[in-house]
Amino acid sequence: MKGLLLIGALVPHFLWAQVQSSFLQDPPIPGNEPSIAVHPQDPSDVWVAFNNNHVYHTLNAGKQWLKIDVNPDQGFYGDPVVKVSPKGTVYLAHLAKNIRENKKHPEWFDCIVFERSTNGVEFHATCIGKNGKMQDKPAINFDQQPKSKYNGNVYAAWTEFDKYNSSNSSDSSRIRFSFSEDDGVSFSPPITVSDKSGNATDDDGTAEGTSMWIGKQGEVFLVWSKMDTLWMDVSKDGGRSWGKDQFLATMPGGWDVKGIKGLVRCNVMPMISGDKKGGIYVVYGAQEWTNGPQSLYYVYSADGGKQFSHPLKINDEKPEISDASYAQAVFPYIDLDENWGYPRVIWYDFRGSLTGRFVMVYTSVLKKRKPLPNTCLSNQPIVLHSKNIFYGDYIGFDSWKGGGRAAVTTFHEELQKPVVEILEWKGKKAQMNNTAPTLILNHNGDGDSLIFCTNMPGETSYTFEIRNGRSIVAQKVTESIRHSEFSLLDFEEFHLSRKALSPGLYTIVVKRKTKAIKKNIWID
Q1: What's phi and psi for 318, nearest 5 deg?
Q2: pLDDT tens per residue across span 436-486
Q3: What is the number of other CB atoms lying within 10 angstroms of the CB of residue 253?
Q4: What is the pLDDT of residues 331-345, one digit of tens each?
Q5: What are phi and psi of 323, to 5 degrees?
Q6: N or C: which end of the chain has fewer CB within 10 A?
Q7: Would you say 231 and 246 are in contact if contact means Cβ atoms under 8 Å apart?
Q8: What is the dihedral of CA 248, 249, 251, 255, to 10 degrees?
Q9: DSSP state, residue 52
Q10: Which residue in 112, 82, 114 sits closest to 97, CA to CA?
Q11: Distance CA 184, CA 94 (A)
Q12: 27 preceded by cis ω (within 30°)?
């Protein structure tokens, strides 16, 4: 068998979910690692940037998306971060791709490219940090605190490598920072924030994963990870000077997560946000025990970062040692939710996937004593196809008074590629509410078996069949072990060897009395 091709689907009518999902364009544009920004004064005005060099803009809440051509002299290659100020200025930071000087990968990442647009059409670029070394993973923010004397400042922070992926002890990494006092037109000479360097191998020993938050008085809080440890530093003068690196928590297992099925690369880099009262929240990932499941935690400060709470767990799945590998939580992203006045965190969660080849997007609102119960944003599981496909290093979220939007990487069945999906909800609450039957095929590029994921919410049993004409090639009856109706998250997964299917057309069916969903596949 050379391959599989999905050629059709019959999808029954179902109720609209509270979280509505949509792709960028039709057909969707392949890509990953999305960043999303909603205009603070106009929720219909949305920006999305994603790998490697895609920027899209909508003025009607995603009904139509316009591709924006962004072609700086420094080049555009990945790690995009986009934000919009209250007055509508668009800030965009990304990696360089300097091929004009005949540089190759990774030497072409020779600066952080910061771009700004006041009209949403033309972007003007500034090169930050060019000094012959590699500049990676930018974070940006701007001061809009009414009581801050640095109100209007724009900030950028990132990781600098002496030589990327070098195991030489003389090569190291550090956290760099630069500020702008003219709305991002120009930036100060970069300074080094981290007191101690990390290695240059782009792993747990590297100083990486920087994230930024602006305090009530204009303090700039910067966090990052290095050597399985969470660090923070603070500037009280608009980024001109910094204190000593402050230890916040240990991160057993580090930020570079290994052994996640279906992901070529996976991280739990720290992120920082705050609440409307001035509280500071730092989210990060760590193993629950040695070689145990990857969970998410946060620490909280009520006194401007002087003291932090003990770590509080975010994901509320309670794994047993026997199924620890199926309870991973990775790719955390945090930002202030304007509807709650507290930060919201979103992440990829593997709960319920016994194969580890399907993942869902979960969310929680963080408060100073504990997080709110987890809710699922995905309306169906996301396929993790193989270790050969890159899903990116980040997902994103932004909010406005009245709702929120997340931008995540999913997998498109017909394209067989990762694409960017927008998840939108209204009001304060955000949760999955898809009552339709589920039938998903994972082509499983890492093995010789197909993996199917099924569900029929509201029923106590249903039948799965693979048909070739009138012949039933495979059949399975699934019954609820609780003798109650399947919930929205009661997914069943099972394998079928490709060798069991000879070349031809097959119909996959999930049915219960008059309710059914069908998909046709062609096998070469």
Answers
A1: -115, 85
A2: 899 999 999 999 999 999 999 999 999 999 999 989 999 999 999 877 899
A3: 23
A4: 999 999 999 999 999
A5: -125, 30
A6: C
A7: yes
A8: -10
A9: T
A10: 112
A11: 14
A12: yes
Q: What is the CATH number of the domain that holds 486?
A: 2.60.40
Tell whether the torsion through CA atoms of 294, 314, 366 and 338 is positive or negative.
Answer: positive
Closest CA to 494 of 477, 512, 519, 517: 477
Instruction: State the number of CA atoms in the 13 A half-sphere of 298 facing the CB.
Output: 30
Q: Which of 219, 250, 281 is the last residue of a domain?
A: 250
In this prediction, residue 7 carries a pLDDT of: 36
Higher pLDDT, 50 or 258: 50
Q: Is 500 helix (H, G, I), strand (E, B) or coil?
A: helix
Same domain, 414 and 349: yes
Show Cβ contacts of residue 35 under 8 Å, excluding neighbours closer than 6 positions.
48, 49, 50, 80, 81, 82, 394, 396, 407
> Which of 306 and 513 is assigned the larger pLDDT?
306
Dihedral sign for Cα atoms in the order 359, 204, 80, 444: negative
| Spatial separation of the C-alpha atoms in residues 254 and 266, rounded to whole Å | 11
**Structural domain includes residue 3:** no
Residue-level pLDDT at 323: 57
Query: pLDDT-based confidence at 320, cuts 50/70/90?
Result: low
Residue 8 covered by a domain: no
Q: Which amino acid is at 307?
A: Q
Q: What is the CA radius of gyration of the chain?
A: 23
Contact 140, 85 (CB under 8 A): no
Q: Hey, what are 406's tokens?
A: 């997340």
The answer to whether 128 and 104 are in contact (CB under 8 A) is no
Q: Collapse the DSSP code of 323 into the 3-class scheme (helix H, G, I; strand E, B; otherwise coil) and give the result.
A: helix
Of residues 515, 395, 382, the one with CA closest to residue 440? 382
Q: Are strands 312-313 and 20-23 parallel, antiparallel or unpaired?
A: unpaired
Q: Which residues of 455-488 are buried (b: 16+ CB within 10 A; e: fewer)?
A: bbbebeebbbbbbeeeeebbeeebeeeeeeebeb
- Beta-bridge partner residues of 114: 93, 126
Query: Is 315 or 323 the better-scoring residue by pLDDT?
Result: 315
Least confident of 60-74, 319-333, 352-366, 391-405: 319-333
**Parent domain of 409:** 18-28+259-433
Number of domains in the chain: 3
In percent, how much of the chain has pLDDT > 70?
95
